[in-house]
Amino acid sequence: MKNKIIQLLQSTAGMLIFALLSGCAYYIVVLKFILSHTSVGGGLLGFFFLPAIIFGAALVLIKIIKQCMENGNYNAVNLIFWLHIVFIIISAVFLVSMFV
């Protein structure tokens, strides 16, 4: 299983898709926070910060994973992958709760 994760993240497309999914997960959590703490205009504020949150988080994640791979620390890459999978699942729960 570790080898499949490493192979996925070594390809450019796999890394980009995983990083953008993680960036979307970060955005959903931030949007949920903004909507729960504002009474008017929270959605607009959330959409204003959308590109910065999604692409900023994706860029940081790509840099961290590439640095771990260059150092040969594949256990850290595996840990980062699974932590973000859990985070994506949590954000999916937040997304469902926003519309229910």
Model description:
The protein has one domain (2-95). Helices cover 89% and strands 0% of the residues. It has five helices and no strands. It has helices at 2-10, 12-37, 42-48, 50-70, 74-99. The longest helix is centred in the N-terminal third of the chain and has 26 residues, at 12-37. The model has no long low-confidence stretch (mean pLDDT 92).
Present the secondary structure layout:
Blueprint lengths: L1 H9 L1 H26 L4 H7 L1 H21 L3 H26 L1
Keywords: Membrane, Transmembrane, Transmembrane helix
Organism: Hominilimicola fabiformis
Protein name: Lipoprotein
Main attributes?
100 residues, mainly alpha, 5 helices
Radius of gyration: 15 Å
Query: Which structural class should the secondary elements be placed in?
Result: mainly alpha
Kindly report the average pLDDT value: 92
The succession of helices and strands, N to C, reads HHHHH
Looking at how many chains there are and whether they match, the oligomeric state comes to: single chain
* Number of discrete helical segments: 5
What portion of residues belong to β-strands?
under 5%
- Summed up, the domain count is 1
Helix content: over 70%
Total strand segments: 0
Distance between the termini: 35 Å
Uncertain residue ranges: none
Biggest sheet overview: none
